[in-house]
Write a structure and sequence with these properties.
Blueprint: H1 17-28, H2 33-37, E1 43-46, E2 62-75, E3 82-89, E4 92-98, H3 102-108, E5 114-124, E6 127-131, E7 134-137, H4 138-143, E8 149-152, H5 157-161, H6 166-180, H7 190-195, H8 201-209, H9 214-245, H10 257-266, H11 273-286, E9 293-298, H12 304-317, E10 321-325, H13 329-342, E11 350-353, H14 359-371, E12 376-379, E13 393-399, H15 406-413, E14 421-426, H16 432-438, E15 443-447, E16 458-463, H17 467-479, E17 483-487, H18 495-512, E18 520-523, H19 529-540, E19 546-549, E20 562-567, H20 575-582, E21 593-598, H21 604-615, H22 619-630, H23 632-635, H24 655-671, H25 681-691
Pfam family, one: DEAD
Keywords: ATP-binding, DNA damage, DNA recombination, DNA repair, DNA-binding, Helicase, Hydrolase, Isomerase, Nucleotide-binding
Enzyme class: isomerase
Length: 701
Amino acid sequence: MPTNFLHTPIDYLNGVGPARAKLLKAELGISTYGDLANLFPNRYIDKTKYYKINELVPDSAHVQIVGKVTHIKTMGDGRSSRLVATFIDSTGSMELVWFKGQKYFKDNLKLNVPYVIYGKVSKYGSKYNIAHPDVELLKEHRSRQQSAMTPIYPSTEQLTKRNVTNKMMVRMMQQLFSEVHNSFTETLSEQIRSQHQLVDKNTAMYNAHFPKSAALLQQSIYRLKFEELFFIQMELLLQNRIRKTRIKGYAFEKVGERFNDFYSNHLPFELTGAQKRVVKEIRADMGTGAHMNRLLQGDVGSGKTIVAVLTCLLAIDNGFQACIMAPTEILAQQHYQGVSELLEKTGLKVSLLTGSVKTKARRVIHSDLEDGTLNILIGTHALIEDKVVFKNLGVAIVDEQHRFGVAQRAKLWKKNDLPPHVLVMTATPIPRTLAMSLYGDLDISVIDELPPGRKEIKTVHRYDKNRLAVFSFLKEEITKGRQIYLVYPLIEESETLDYKDLMDGYESVVREFPTPQYQVSIVHGRMKPEDKDYEMERFVKGETQIMVATTVIEVGVNVPNASVMVIESAERFGLSQLHQLRGRVGRGADQSFCILMTSYKLSTEAKTRVETMVATTDGFEIAEVDLKLRGPGDMMGTRQSGVLALRVADIVKDNDILAVARETAKELLQKDATLALPENTSIKKVLQFLQSKKGLWKYIS
């Protein structure tokens, strides 16, 4: 059989045809035989057992019964019309009911001929019935390819409407495997299969669809998951190795005067052990002459900015410039203010470039950048415009990388002859399993300590009925000289409703905290930028004690004196957003608090989110729970990496398999870096196919 057999268009499969092929492509992305073979079942139903009618119980699970249809009639009129068939076996009778497709079943059901029916049992009065059962002639049922368990395939509303049922999907799959036979190429080496006791590819593929036993199904699914995760890790590890061995970077060989002077004389506080470790990792990376591509993970308030500044100073000491790119103007301004304050006494020049910078100021920045008098440029995506030309860019620091597109990042890498070293920072803690798949080609550094003097934020959950007690607590804190955030949710679909919530909340706060004793700021998305900035500035200066806001304060506000965060309707926020909001307090030395206000009606998921927030302030622990609740695609905002488009494995549930697959890939590349050994030929071929469109294979020969 030709090797490209699995590339055969699905139109040619017996029972499909052009119209159904078009539907399968639109709904499930199935274009070829191979695509169909890789559509794995969601679950399996054991159809080895046959029930008798007298064994049925109300609301039991799905059952399978052998019997005959003795009578068919249409009952009711119009919308209440239904087709009812009397179905009997040797122990009794029951009813089969159809509300849709009545004509088809009325015309095609044969009386007094043995059928096998399958469906969920209900009881109406004294009579058992099954609505819309699967119906199959007994002789066809016996002649079919039988397995211990029936696969249930993914479906969509359109497929159901067009009568592409699960039964039809099973038939298509049976037809496919009758044509395909054993044409799946083995992708793993004999040594890896033996080491991990993996079944061969053909056995795995067949039993994933038509399991001969529960044990064989388990072995087959494990093999397919391992294979999928193994090749993802191979790609990521190869990219990492290529970058380190083939892509040159600038060698920052010395730790010079600027770095040492700042570290000894201008550092505002002692670095934590975690910060020192991360700076050493970055120094080692940038000193080799290989290109650095490092991810820096650190919770809100963990001190990533100081690490970024020290990284910039390493570049400056070696005759290079540095840039920091942030996804929003607010975040860029925050970085600019923080970096400018830290470097105020060093004589270094730092500038801010965003969309709102006026033309005259831009010209000065462009000029200073080209002649090298500008040492550090901080800004938004305005940094990647063609007219922004650096004299000698040595390091690019990107904050919250997942909010930039691939093309945007690539433009920044081309700002010098050799690509600048790259440090990616994120305050969104990424669970290890997800980091291995999203950023497995990056080296990862983690700041897992908070700066000294920071007290852990106390988080409590209060119901709406406790509001007066909460207000009383807020007054006590204000008396101590503290400031308060009061945040309302903003969900795009119901902006009007959310605005009403915010204004109602603001009015009740103003009533409870009247002037002149109290001053209240309000900030929301409908305000003019200058009004928003004015209100924020008042709060930063301490002129107002309470800021009522939407989530615009999630990033970009740093007020050490603000020690209480009240989050209204906390059940409407995601876990990572709750954690980011909580990170707005706890910036000073005082004890800080986060109060989660909710209604009594909480879904199971909302309850889990609230309980998690109360139980821990560890961002990585929170991220693990968030990953389990939301899944990797949602958590990162988009399945933008492509790496997470998994067919059979699950990043969350299969993290043990992922760890084994990564370790196996590492061991393999240590022994055979270019996959030149004959036993690794199959692995090399798969990687050549996967990487043919990425231009990476030229480095592996």
